[in-house]
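Hi again,

Forgot to attach this to my earlier email, sorry! This is the prediction with zinc ion bound. I've pasted everything inline since the attachment limit keeps bouncing my files.
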Amino acid sequence: MSKRQRIETDAGTEVQCAKCLEFWPEDPEFYFFSKGKAHSWCKDGYRNDPKQIAKAARQRAELNARRAARRKEQRA
Ligand SMILES: [Zn+2]
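Structure tokens for the complex follow:
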């Protein structure tokens, strides 16, 4: 299992981001969740990482290509 640092604060549990090493509340406002667990990076980490930005741009391009293909099919 993960060995990420956790701290208990008055506001609840906070977990450490593996990217920026800051502690943030274990909350969808600060972390993405999958299968009920917070990702190891905070949302800002994902937003600011060049690889993630490139990946998001690629996914958007693929989605747009799929949409364009579907529109073409519907017109045929
Ligand atoms: Zn972070």
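The beta strands are 6-9, 12-16, 23-25, 31-34, 37-42. The chain has a mean pLDDT of 92.

That should be everything now.

G.
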